[in-house]
Amino acid sequence: MPIKEKYDIEDIIIDVISKESLSSEKQMFFNEWLKDDENKEEFYKYQRFHNALFAVRMKEKADNARILANITLAKRSRQLSIKRWLGYAAGVACLVGFCLMFFLVKINQHEARTNLMPQKMTVTPQDVVLTLSNGKRILLSDSIGSFKAPNGAIIHHSKENGLVYDSTNATSQLEYNTINIPRGAEYKLILADGTTVWLNSESEITYPVFFYGDMREIRLKGEAYFDVAENKRQPFVVHTENFDVRVTGTEFNVRVYPGETECTTLAEGSIQMEKGDEIHYIEPGQQAALVNGKMKIKKVDLTTAIAWRYNAFSFNEQPLEEIMNELARWYDMEIFYMTPQVKKLHFTAWFRRNSTLKEVIEVFEKTQRINIELKGKTMIIAQKK
Q1: Distance (Å, rounded) from C-alpha 248 to C-alpha 250?
Q2: CA count, 13 A, side-chain hemisphere, 313
Q3: Cα–Cα distance measured from residue 23 to residue 172, given in angstroms and rounded to the nearest whole number
Q4: pTM of the shown model
Q5: Digit-coded pLDDT (tens) for 226-256
């Protein structure tokens, strides 16, 4: 019986290169096929294509269609010629093209499986990462589904709800998880008590898998909006480097980016700000900011102060430096000012967070006050004369 009629060598090659296990019969078949020198050279060419494809994906993070196009062009430019084998009537060039498409599918499947195995994860600067109490890191992609924490709590992940903790079957072992949000991303988290947390770009939150004791305590770096589940017997405390926020159930925003004014803005309910022995009670619509080591409380426009929570940027006569710090985090850019004076210019602007960087730049340039030039991932800003 011709080999082609018994097994599909394409599938076997793909399985071998993708490190899939073969049945003993298929393995024997492949070993026999590989004894032919021409077949062996053909297999090595497939393997080189696969390795090149994988390298491009890791280096450039290009999309699948772009990778396939690049490799197809490379294949044509080299005018590869691979002999027909064992009765194939079709040209091997077509076979290579089909095989590469199969490789893309196999790689995507492999990556999805890898997300379920934290110890084999490759993290890029754009990834939201969950770190478990045992040190394992999990890349939070849509393919995660549900998995178990070391203390038995079930962690559900979905595109719609983000990360949701179910501590029904958790043991009394106290465990903390940490989520890191990179530039250009935001994330939603539902804690074991039902509290919902929205995390802004370049933020980090550390929290228990299950809340024990007489307080619910978490630690925050960056910015987050909280909708705290009410529990008067177990206050919810947000710890930051320089102050704490204590509540029983309410909605508020905490912003503690390095080098910027640290503040808390209350949307609903009531909170108390604690800095050492100082305690300040905040009302809805008020913002408590740490200025030169002192807590200052003022009335603010919530649509501006927490615009990010509603998928928008809103700036009201703010210094350009503050505005650009915000934009740099979201668009993952660096900012270079031609003169120190340009940082102090004040602007009022509003636009959606899904606006392109080009659209944002056009908004500022229409003011006729500044010029913005893009050089790679750097925005060069100069004041118009």
Answers
A1: 7
A2: 27
A3: 45
A4: 0.65
A5: 999 999 999 999 999 999 999 988 999 999 9
